[in-house]
Amino acid sequence: MLTLDLNNAPRWHDLAPGVRVQLRPLTTALMVATRSDAAVEAVPEEASDEERAVAFAKALARRAVRAWEGIGDADGNPIDPSLEAIDALLDVWPIFEAFQLTYVSKGLLLEQEKNASALSPNGPSAGASATATPARKNARTARRG
Fold it and tell me: How far apart are CA 145 and CA 143, in angstroms?
């Protein structure tokens, strides 16, 4: 069953020990706006999937981040989110991975559910129906010539 959460308030997501960001909900409007972001559209056609993923994640984060905690400048002074700071944050590999796992992938779970396989015809997930007719018990084997 699909459960709808009608609360569109931003939520806090922990990305690393002591680092958390407040993000807007991952809505259709947010995804559509990100797909048409100038930085995403500027990615060359010959770019790798990884380069596209980074450009998309940064564009999405620039739209989604509302606040953060535990992020500072080179001197250790807390800083507020800005476009440049958000991009720099996602350049940190563990943060990028956590953003993808805790925010982006949760929004894509429904897409994955559409690609699920049928249940196994036997075993603990029995449910698919057999399509082949069972062999007769007294069937002869073919002669080898």
Answer: 6
Q: According to the model, what pLDDT value does residue 136 have? A: 59
First-residue to last-residue Cα distance in the chain: 57
Residue 20 predicted with pLDDT over 90: yes
Whole-structure pTM value? 0.71
For the residues of 26-58, what is the DSSP string, one character each? Answer: --HHHHHHHHT-HHHHTS-TT--HHHHHHHHHH
Sequence-ordered list of residues with C-beta below 8 angstroms from that of 32, at least 6 positions apart, any chain:
none
Q: b vs e for 6-45, b when ≥16 Cβ sit within 10 Å of the residue's Cβ?
A: eeeeeeebebeeebbbbbbebeeebeeebeebeebeebee
Quick: pLDDT tens for 77-99: 999 999 999 999 999 999 999 99
Name which of 81, 44, 42 is nearest 63 in CA terms. 81
Quick one: pLDDT at residue 7?
78
